[in-house]
Every structure is written in C-alpha cells, then in structure tokens.
Amino acid sequence: MNILVTGANGFLGKNLIARINAENIGNILPFDLQDSVDKLEEHIKKADYIFHLAGINRPQEQSEYYAGNSNLTGTVIDLMEASNISVPIVFSSTAQVGNGSDYAISKELAEKKLLDYQQRTGNEVVIYRFPGIFGKWSRPNYNTVVATFCHNIARGLPIDIRDPEHEIVLCYIDDVVDLLIHTLNEHKVFKIEPLYKITLGRLVGIIQSFASEKHKLVIEDLSDALVKKLYATFLSFLPEDKILYTLETHKDDRGSFTEFLHLPKHGQVSVNTSKPGVTKGDHWHDSKHEKFLVVSGQGIIKLRKLNSTEIIIYHVNSDKLTVVEIPPGYTHNITNPGTTDMVTVMWASEIFDKSHPDTFYEKVEV
Q1: How buried is 67 (Cβ within 10 angstroms: 0-12 exposed, 13-18 middle, 19+ buried)?
Q2: pLDDT tens per residue, range 250-298
Q3: What is the pLDDT of residues 160-180, one digit of tens each?
Q4: 231 given a catalytic annotation
Q5: Catalytic: which of 66, 103, 196, 330?
Q6: CATH of 2-130 given 3.40.50.2000, 3.40.50.720, 3.50.50.60, 2.50.20.20
C-alpha cells in the first residue's frame, strides 16, 4: 500500500510515519509544504491512501493560514480530480473550528472543500477535529502548551500562565496515531479518545514535579494515564546533559548501598554490593517486606521466623536469576560466599523513613 502523508516532517506526520514503518503497514509517500506541487501530483497518482496532515499553526503572516490549510487542501482535491484518482483521504482538522480565528476559519474552509468533494464524487473523506495533541517530537511555542511547558521547565526557563484555572482539552500523540491506523485498516470513523481536561495550573504543577524527581529519586504515580503520558513527553524534552544523572552511593568496608527509585505507592528500589565474605542484615520488619535479587556473583540468604530456631537457607547466583521474598516477622541476612563482589537489587515495600524505620536488629543464627 502506498500511503501519502502530507506534513511528513510535522509533529503528527513524524509519529504516524514512524509507526507505519515500524509495523510495515505500507510504503510512505512523504510531502511537506516546501515541496513542489509536481511532487504532490506524482505522489497522488501513486497513492492508495492519503493522510492529509499538513497545515500551518503559527505563521508570521495571517495569509499563511489560508495558503497552508484551505488552499493546499484545494490543491490536493484538484490534483485528485485531474488525475481521476479516488482513494480515501483523512484530514487533520482542529477542535478550534468555530472560534473565529484565522486558523480555525482556514481549517473550516478546508473541511468544506473536502465535504463538497465527497458529495460531488463519492470519494471517502474522514475529518478529525483534534484538540491539542501532545507527545514526543512536538515543538515548543508551536504545537501545544504542553510542549512549551516541558521544554522550558526541563531547562529551568520561565513560563507564563495568565489564568491557572483555564481548562484545556488534550489528546496524546500515540492515541491519535492508533486512531489513524485504525481508520486506515478498517475504513471507519472512530471517536477521538481518550481526551483529557486539565487546568493550566495543574498541568504546570505536574510537569514541574517531573523536573525535581531526579533529586528526590521519586517517580510520580504512573497509574494515572495522563500523568504517565505527560511524563513520557517531558522525558522527550530533556537536554542531553540531564538524561544522565548520578546517584548517591554510601560505601564502607563491607560494600555499598545505593537508592535507585522511590515509588510513593510501591516502595523503593536499591542496589547493594557486598565484598567477599561479608554478611549484611540480621534484622526483621513488622510490616515492611522485601525482594532480593542477586544479579552479579553469588549469595546465601538466610531467614528465621521470630520465636523459631529453624533457619531457612537459599543459595542464589547470577547464573539463574532468582527472587527471594523476605516476609515480615522473619529475621534475615545475606552473605557473599564468593571471591568477587556480589550485587543485589533490593525492593522494599516502603520508602525508608528514619522516624519509623520498621527495622529491628536480631541475628538469624542464635
């Protein structure tokens, strides 16, 4: 299948093309506003399907709205009719239609041309009026406020919010791409979903929390779909020098301990190294429970239920990755019996709290 994508280098075009190529859906015929009409005509003659995504959002001159939106759409229709081409065409319009702006008017004019063309020829036309789309590869100060906020906050630049209580509607780029692929495959019009309503003030607060999580080791609750998608978008805007960051490691003659992640609803993850012959632990917890995973070297994990003399012993090593659960009420330790450092990934059900550590010393072997 030959798929013509206008606006191939735009935010939506790039994401759609990447998915089409990754899933081997078809052969892309790319077109951008700077390309010639001859190239557009050549692609239209070969196309089996058209995603008309090209458009102008923020031009220097108002006339560019009409040249890049309604006039270009008219050109696409004229070329299709001149070549007697009848293939489905999906048009990316805007939820702003009806607000009286030049952008909205130019998109509405493009819609009218397409609907007139559909009525005149019977050619399949699908029009989606998208709200603000956010996600990777969007442009700050162009696509949505999300892109601008992510770009500026990731770089410590100021942001301007006139009304923090102003509510906007957003949709996520991957959901939009899913929608377009479904339309291509099933030749149906689908509902744009999910949509997210959020105030500018809350939006900024969420994104600002991402900027500080590196220092706190905290990752937001990603069970919230909007927060998860905003976090993915924020990460795509990180400068290269902020993609890498160093953790604080506590070292002594036994080895080291490094906290990796703090998950407010799911505890914490740490990395522990132990020198040969070293035993760590000999403590128990009331409610906290843990998982130990030796990822390098070998280890002996011992557990003993309180008020019992029976010792449970587990031999683990990195050749066969095995998780040992540490239940509450069991005193436990871990020993490195090898000749090289042992590295253990440890998960605890709670983030460590100095004021309530829930950790009590008691040797496993009495």
Answers
A1: middle
A2: 999 999 999 999 988 899 999 999 999 999 999 999 999 999 999 999 9
A3: 999 999 999 999 999 999 999
A4: no
A5: 103
A6: 3.40.50.720
